[in-house]
């Protein structure tokens, strides 16, 4: 697009006449006394008014088109907890040659003192830039002189070289908004695909004609002047078990579809997958890296010398790439330079690593493909029309017999065929160098499974001596291995674990299969903990000291987005404790058997006391990776019942 548009001689008329902005610094008693109960009585801050405008203009000094975005917002702070909303972060995107910039920044805090509003302007020297990554800069500032009851206000102008996505406007944020308005001017030569995401509806939308807003090579061009308005917008509250908030927040999105050129022709930016397939296959940082045979031609015989079939050959290559190239913590779909360089440097982003893997698999004559995807924190992909920039990650897919395996070699602690949870996000697009691309579901190939077994004996002195054995599978094993590897040794890990368990003393430990990621991770701990003083005639013993559920992860009155766990899970806890002969059981937690709708999961609890031995068995299962928003309140109640029951204890009495 930039090559086509850079040749255009553009004279853009000012849009100030059409602006519907509000004046900066005009704080009223209505602002100061706004009753948050009108929107949300629990809010610690409320956006009173927010206005934005966006247009495409010519930067005379650079001789190129740019997007000009202006943002103005006024916020009422109600409590100290609301002070966080005065910490402003503005993301500025960049690449090797272009970057976004902000100008005309104003920010003030208004307090009512001695019968009048007093303004405290922010010193512009308080603004600082943080280089977050090679593609992202953060402009940060904090409003001064904050008090409970303050009204803060800030505005700025952002200049962006990115015309493709115009400028997204988020109506919804983590605090409620009284009034959020967005005004855009789109020249008639541009056609954008526009979509409104989220559960909230527009209060008003107005489309008008802005006559002669653009003068182009002596000809005048009209603009579409579009106003989007949303009033009384509830806060979007993030909870556990969700993908990117951008998937669910109410916001307006733009993607460039077509540009009408001055010569009468058109440049289409909405492409077909056939176009994308060709572009990726011929891209020097993607498809051409997959095709390279020179990097692994001489290495493959050595890597696969012990392999007896295609599956063992693929595993050998996967393990080799995992060991040879360390992830530099940058996420990418493309190779930064080329796969040979990353192999030589033994470091690279996720694109470098997994394109190395695909190249090696293809060199070994295995049926390998690339799968491009959007990670969970990057949002979902638009499937109506292909937009490559929606994707930010690539993994390998190898087909062996009638089975397909998805591989990511950036995580050395993951077993063959299990993707990192960050990649389990809706669907990915399979890119084959010889065939048409297609969609495939991204699902975890294994459950998260953990079993805990405690076998112990209560002695006359009131102490339990026993052994806790834990078996972890799937993501549970991966997370535990990752946690252990943060320490210099397993002994140090156990020492820290002992510190985190003040009531339990670890006497000895054994950890098996720490580096054998294809097998279950097994931990055995000889433990000791005191139940009572050994003298008391009766005492309580809680059977819920392993993975006790003390907090409900779901606390909203309603949730408009799905509960996405990423994978199904299964946790089992078995406790067997031999008791002294002279004790009898007086009370115990109620046995439970509760289930979720549509066989979505269950919780089972059974406690028995016989032959002087207490036995407690628990099973907590979630059979689905994703639960719809309609089942949120059921899940909330499900957890509440478990938590309530786990507050009860076993009561023993000496005969």
Give an overview in words:
The protein is an alpha+beta fold. It folds into three domains: 2-268, Immunoglobulin-like (Sandwich); 273-441, C8orf32 fold; 448-654, Jelly Rolls (Sandwich), CATH 2.60.120. The protein contains eleven helices and 36 strands. Helix 6 (310-324) packs antiparallel against helix 8 and helix 7 (339-345) packs across helix 8 (350-363). Residues 299-387 form the Transglutaminase-like domain. It comes from Pedobacter yonginense. Residues 1-19 form the signal peptide. Keywords: Signal.
For this entry, give a set of tags.
eight-stranded mixed β-sheet; Jelly Rolls; nine-stranded mixed β-sheet; globular; 11 helices; C8orf32 fold; alpha+beta; Immunoglobulin-like; 655 residues
SSE order and pairing:
Layout: H1 2-5, E1 10-12, H2 29-32, E2 45-59, E3 64-77, E4 87-93, E5 101-113, E6 116-121, E7 128-133, E8 136-142, E9 151-160, E10 169-170, E11 177-187, E12 190-197, E13 204-216, E14 219-233, E15 251-260, E16 266-268, H3 273-282, H4 287-291, H5 300-303, H6 310-324, E17 326-327, H7 339-345, E18 347-348, H8 350-363, E19 367-373, E20 393-400, E21 403-407, E22 427-431, E23 438-441, E24 448-458, E25 463-473, H9 474-485, H10 490-500, E26 505-512, E27 521-530, E28 538-541, E29 563-564, E30 569-578, E31 583-587, E32 592-595, E33 601-610, E34 613-622, E35 626-627, H11 632-645, E36 650-654
Parallel strand pairs: 2-11, 17-18, 24-30
Antiparallel strand pairs: 1-13, 2-3, 3-9, 4-8, 5-6, 5-9, 7-8, 10-15, 11-14, 12-15, 13-14, 15-16, 19-20, 19-22, 20-21, 22-23, 24-25, 25-27, 26-27, 28-36, 29-35, 30-34, 31-36, 32-33, 33-34
Domain Transglutaminase-like: 299-387
InterPro entries: Papain-like_cys_pep_sf, Transglutaminase-like
Organism: Pedobacter yonginense
């Amino acid at each position: 697009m930039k090559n086509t548009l850079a040749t255009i001689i553009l004279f853009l008329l000012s849009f100030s006449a059409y602006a519907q902005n509000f004046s900066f610094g005009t704080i009223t008693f209505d602002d100061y006394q706004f009753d948050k109960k009108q929107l949300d009585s629990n809010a610690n801050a409320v956006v009173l008014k927010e206005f934005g405008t966006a247009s495409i203009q010519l930067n005379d000094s650079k001789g190129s088109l740019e997007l000009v975005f202006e943002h103005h917002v006024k916020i009422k702070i109600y409590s100290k907890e609301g002070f966080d909303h005065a910490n402003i972060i503005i993301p500025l995107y960049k690449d090797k040659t272009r970057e976004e910039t902000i100008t005309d920044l104003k920010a003030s805090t208004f307090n009512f003192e001695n019968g009048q509003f007093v303004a405290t302007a922010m010193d512009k020297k308080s603004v600082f830039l943080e280089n977050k990554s090679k593609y992202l800069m953060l402009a940060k500032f904090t409003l001064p002189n904050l008090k409970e009851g303050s009204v803060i206000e800030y505005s700025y102008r952002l200049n962006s070289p990115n015309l493709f996505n115009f400028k997204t406007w988020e109506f919804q944020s983590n605090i409620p908004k009284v009034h959020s308005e967005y005004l855009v001017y789109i020249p008639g030569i541009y056609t954008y695909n526009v979509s409104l995401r989220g559960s909230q509806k527009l209060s008003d939308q107005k489309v008008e004609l802005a006559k002669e807003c653009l003068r182009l090579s002596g000809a005048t061009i009209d603009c579409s002047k579009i106003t989007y308005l949303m009033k009384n917008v509830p806060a979007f509250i993030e909870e556990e078990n969700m993908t990117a908030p951008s998937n669910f927040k109410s916001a307006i999105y733009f993607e460039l579809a077509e540009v009408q050129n001055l010569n009468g022709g058109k440049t289409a930016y909405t492409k077909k997958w056939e176009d994308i397939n060709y572009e990726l296959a011929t891209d020097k940082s993607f498809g051409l890296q997959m095709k390279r045979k020179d990097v692994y031609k001489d290495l493959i015989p050595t890597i696969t010398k012990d392999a007896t079939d295609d599956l063992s050959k693929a595993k050998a290559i996967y393990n080799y790439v995992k060991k040879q190239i360390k992830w530099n913590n940058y996420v990418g779909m493309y190779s930064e330079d080329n796969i040979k360089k990353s192999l030589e440097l033994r470091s690279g982003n996720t694109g470098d690593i997994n394109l190395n893997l695909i190249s090696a698999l293809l060199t070994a004559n295995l049926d390998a493909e690339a799968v491009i995807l959007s990670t969970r924190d990057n949002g979902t992909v638009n499937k109506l029309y292909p937009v490559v920039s929606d994707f930010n990650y690539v993994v390998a897919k190898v087909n062996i017999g009638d089975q397909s395996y998805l591989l990511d070699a950036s995580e050395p602690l993951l077993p063959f065929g299990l993707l990192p949870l960050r990649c389990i996000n809706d669907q990915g697009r399979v890119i084959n160098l010889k065939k048409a691309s297609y969609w495939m579901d991204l699902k975890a190939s294994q459950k998260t499974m953990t079993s805990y077994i405690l076998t112990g004996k209560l002695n006359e002195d009131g102490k339990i001596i026993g052994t806790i054995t834990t078996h972890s599978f799937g993501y549970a094993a991966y997370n535990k291995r990752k946690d252990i590897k943060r320490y210099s040794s397993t002994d140090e890990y156990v020492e820290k674990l002992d510190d985190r368990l003040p009531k339990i003393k670890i006497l000895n430990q054994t950890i098996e299969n720490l580096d054998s990621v294809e097998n279950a991770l097994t931990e055995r701990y000889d433990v000791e903990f005191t139940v009572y003083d050994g003298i008391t005639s009766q005492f309580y013993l809680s059977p819920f000291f392993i993975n006790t559920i003390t907090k409900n992860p779901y606390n909203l009155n309603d949730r408009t987005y799905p509960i996405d766990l990423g994978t199904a899970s299964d946790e089992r806890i078995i406790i067997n404790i031999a008791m002294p002969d002279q004790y009898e059981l007086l009370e115990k937690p109620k046995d439970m058997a509760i289930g979720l709708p549509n066989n979505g999961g269950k919780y089972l609890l059974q406690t028995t006391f016989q032959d002087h031995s207490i036995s407690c068995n628990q099973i907590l299962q979630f059979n689905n990776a994703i639960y719809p928003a309609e089942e949120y309140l059921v899940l909330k109640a499900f957890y509440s019942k478990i938590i309530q029951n786990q507050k009860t204890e076993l009561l023993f009495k000496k005969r």
